[in-house]
Write a structure and sequence with these properties.
- The structure is a homodimer of 595-residue chains.
- Chain A is built from 19 helices and 20 strands.
- In chain A, the strands form 4 sheets. The first copy, chain A, has a 7-stranded mixed sheet, covered by helices on one side.
- In chain A, strand 4 and strand 5 form a beta hairpin.
- In chain A, helix 7 crosses helix 8.
- The longest helix of chain A is centred in the N-terminal third of the chain and has 23 residues.
- The interface between A and B is large, with 107 and 107 residues.
Chain lengths: 595, 595
């Protein structure tokens, strides 16, 4: 049996567009002689549709789109092109089976379902049974679970259907199919969002599934960015030993083709394409996720261009480089907004960073605005220009300049804060957090440095190498002087991040433990982190929930990002301390760049 | 049997503070001779604790707080005061039963549970069985359901326990207790958030429960504000006919006492207190909800003072009046920030509105900032001062002034947008939406007018009356000239809301249908609304999800607010139209005051 996995980039709510993409992939699959074509979970409407499924009209329209696809498939099979495929491949396109995810409504209940379509007719429907309701998932908010296994006989093989989470619980899976007889191939259609190293978990889960049933597994994943989520594709096929035999592209559309043959010794998988390159490590994964997430957020929301403030620091340089990779450097407008607190080195590096990438640069000094603003605020007698409020004012003037330009020219503002800053609230609300998309908000500062080095390698620049050549080759994506600069917000004379924060390697370890793994202060101290820093950082993280609540979405790259993953109250008097619990001091709405 | 329902204002995460409040209420209840004292759902940790329950230390600390309460209760019973209560009331405080909600961890699973405490020991635990996972609720994210009914024999009565949602499904409830024998009293501990007219639903649900089992029902609800939610209290008791015999205060703490007597003809309830006043209609309910929600958000987050921009329009005047009622007028700093586009009438009304309430007023004209800002932005050749970007710039300068003052003096910024504006995005991101709490974000414009009139009645002002008297009585809370002003943003000459939006009565009907009831465009047109306006408004609502995502929390007063209630993707190509579905035009990041 020949199978095709149609890993495509769906857009939530774009029923017509998603169907169109599937038609094109279906035609290619049929020309390649596929007996079975599978598309991802909820491929008709995109994933996750969230509360759109509460709209009855949406669910109806999604059903109509499914039926339109089914009818088209039949028409195409009967067309000249369909007949040509049959003549070339010796297979009848009318006999090709299509499996596709959609929202099913039955007797007032909604299901996350897979339709099985043959000769233009929906011949069976499988309903997802395990509905994830933790992490970023809210499926029990919407869907009822299925209860019935679906197994299709096809080209001499017994093919079982599952949807995403269904295969992530071994024990349940075995009991669900107990008594269902032999399974030769398990088709799993998924919308499995990316996080760092998740691919290894997936290989394990899919491999376990193969071994339980001694069947091949065809795992078809979604690809593309959807708000905070990025789906990484990497659809794959294992043989009945659980070995990954072939894998589709990462972070790109792909049609994965293979032949499945059941024999005495098990079920074999024979790929029909040469292997494609895969990300070589987690830094490359993260880079590709950020590029795709940024591109899709911009383009799917109607923006060809982005703009951002470029400071001469590493965060904005890395953000600009990712945006340039996503949208082309000419579409990334860098704005440098110096004040009297910026060093000549920083100002020069801001220009160098933009120039190296080939991005347009606009310079708007903020002093002419800062000065009258400061004067006007003296109407409040307590106002002064020596504290946090004055520092935040500078950041906010920059945010307003970017938003004004955005409104005037229609480019999306990217914010440049990293996860270390976002965690402890080392940012100004409506200042550097102002914008539509926050590219590196889930990237810890230590990973930002690794990304910078990776991007320089990618650009062909070797550390300590010769620098610029006339043809631009060997030019650093991120100037070395930017990488080497001691982190500073430059909102007052001689300011440095480390005056307000622990060193970033310590800070990032605390964040990983406290935010991503829900460890307590005691756990962290026992793991060797300094008690004083642990308590200070946790207090900062807890107090800054209100800032994060108003920050733009950004690409999720970890198993716990700030977003749908982590739902904490703003009003919250709990703190975990090493000593006994105590009532937290009231926070003040400082929104400070340092706390 | 004498029962006491301890309706108290818990704070999420404030384990020690919540326990302290319960101790005080318990002592009062015991002095009043109570046999049974009940506190609300998750009273130990506050509701909803959200992802705090993922922290193992939090769950442990919550258990320790429960046990500390239990031990204290025993000690208090054995104390002089406990003995004095016994001597006065002829009841042994050691025999008083305490029912209190907490997070239970058992074999790695979490339960939303009620502990039954007698003589300092936890003698039984009931686990909530129906876990709501729609609307604002995510309980299946955290908790496993219970499976076992708990019935306690107490003072000759059979008392069953349930938690909140458990009694909202008649059929399930009857089957859950089938075979459990006679029930004389159903105790339901709840954390049931307010929305307009929900009290009638509650009366019905509680009454139905009473009739099913022919038992009295003691319904103990939480009170207080928690981020977007307000719990309205109104704990109540019904007799076995389902009649509401007594009801605790609305939007305030209360200890509701009654005697329960089972006889031949059913179970009777005899209140021990005179009836308390209840909100007379939905406007009064909304007013009280907004006041409590605002007070609790400010105080629980450590703010004694708030500040807001006051424009001379009705939204900011109403917001200021609510804040003044919540925190005292001296703690509500009004800032008027006129530009050349504001009429003399508006400027005068801004002052009058603040003066009438007795709030301090600060004046900071924006022209001295607007002018150099506009000059600087000419660095971008496409910049001009005649479009939306220039209008937004004015709103953002005002937002920055408020945030600068907030940072300097430590007052919380209140935003003043109403639900009609929030729905269609008639606001400037980081401009008038900048702030920590959005008092009327769930209040439609038509309701804002009703609130203004209600507050004037409350202040003793009769429409058409004599105006100011020397003692201030009869002074309008909201000046009549403010109420009568034609709505305008005053960001360009002669601007009026109705140039950009439908009339508010039409707009509000569309929002109620589309947002609150998930009706389609076709539904709305069939209900008599104009097709053109319906399509235009729906497009605006859909396109402005990104603005709402970054807006501050505010008081939820409807069954569907923008917040945890309504989870829609930002990236979303679906629109419901009267004609066949079409691909939406890309939105542009205009953040405009009019779209």
């Amino acid at each position: 049996m020949r199978i095709a996995l149609g890993q495509f980039n769906a857009t939530v709510g774009d029923l017509a567009g998603n169907v169109e993409k599937m038609k094109q992939m279906w035609a290619r699959a049929v020309e390649a002689g596929a007996d079975l074509v599978a598309f991802p979970e909820l491929a008709i409407c995109g994933y996750p549709p969230e509360d759109l499924v509460y709209k009855k009209q949406f669910v109806k329209d999604n059903r109509a789109a499914l039926e339109e696809l089914a009818a088209w498939v039949e028409g195409a099979a009967r067309s000249d092109r369909g007949r040509a495929a049959r003549d070339t491949q010796g297979r009848d396109a009318l006999a090709t089976t299509l499996v596709v995810g959609f929202v099913e409504c039955s007797e007032g209940n909604l299901y996350n379902s897979a339709a099985v379509i043959q000769a233009g007719r929906i011949v069976d429907i499988y309903r997802k049974t395990l509905l994830p309701n933790t992490s970023v998932f809210d499926e029990q908010r919407y869907f009822k679970p299925g209860a019935r296994p679906v197994i299709i006989d096809m080209a001499g093989l017994r093919v079982a259907l599952t949807i995403c989470q269904d295969i992530w619980d071994d024990q349940w899976l075995a009991s669900f199919f107990a008594g269902a007889g032999r399974i030769d191939l398990m088709v799993n259609i998924s919308a499995s969002p990316f996080h760092v190293n998740k691919i290894y978990q997936r290989h394990e889960v899919v491999g376990d599934c193969a071994q339980i049933f001694r069947c091949a597994v065809a795992y078809c994943n979604l690809v593309g960015g959807q708000d905070e989520l990025v789906f990484d594709g990497r659809s794959l096929l294992t043989d009945s030993m659980g070995r990954v035999v072939t894998q589709a592209k990462a972070f790109d559309e792909d049609l994965l083709l293979a032949d499945i043959e059941a024999g005495e010794a098990g079920v074999h998988v024979r790929p029909l394409q040469p292997p494609v390159g895969q990300p070589k490590d987690e830094v490359e994964e993260v880079y590709q996720a950020l590029v795709l997430g940024t591109r899709d957020y911009a383009l799917k929301n109607g923006f060809q261009q982005v703009l951002l403030g470029i400071s001469g620091g590493i965060d904005s340089a890395v953000t600009a480089a990712i945006a340039a990779a996503a949208l082309g450097p000419q579409n990334v407008i860098c704005v440098t907004m110096p004040s009297r607190f910026n060093s000549p080195g920083t100002i020069a590096d801001a220009k160098l960073a933009a120039d190296n990438l080939g991005c347009p640069l606009l310079t708007i000094p903020i002093e002419p605005i800062l000065k009258p603003f400061n004067e006007s605020l003296k109407a409040e007698p307590r106002w002064n220009d020596r504290g946090l409020a004055y520092e935040n004012l500078q950041a906010r003037i920059r945010g307003m300049i970017l938003m004004s330009l955005s409104n005037q020219i229609g480019a999306l503002v990217l914010t440049t804060g990293n996860k270390s800053e976002v965690s402890v609230g080392y940012s100004t609300l409506y200042g550097d957090t102002a914008g539509g998309f926050s590219v590196i908000k889930d990237v810890l500062k230590t990973m930002v440095y690794r990304l910078a080095e990776y991007m320089n390698e990618l650009a062909g620049h070797r550390p300590g190498g010769a620098g610029l050549r006339p043809d631009g080759a060997g030019r650093e994506a991120i100037p070395v002087s930017v990488i080497q600069r001691v982190p500073t917000a430059e909102l007052r004379p001689n300011q440095r991040d480390r005056d307000s924060l622990p060193e970033y390697d310590v800070l990032d370890r605390i964040i990983m433990g406290y935010v991503e793994q829900d460890q307590s202060a005691r756990d962290l101290v026992e793991s060797g982190l300094p008690a004083g820093e642990v308590e200070r950082v946790i207090r900062m993280i807890d107090r800054n929930e209100y800032k994060r609540r108003q920050s733009p979405p950004g690409v999720r790259i970890t198993a716990k990002a700030f977003g749908k993953d982590r739902r904490l109250p703003i009003t919250n008097h709990y703190t975990t301390t090493i000593r006994k619990p105590e009532i937290r001091n009231p926070k003040s709405e400082t929104n400070s760049k340092h706390e």
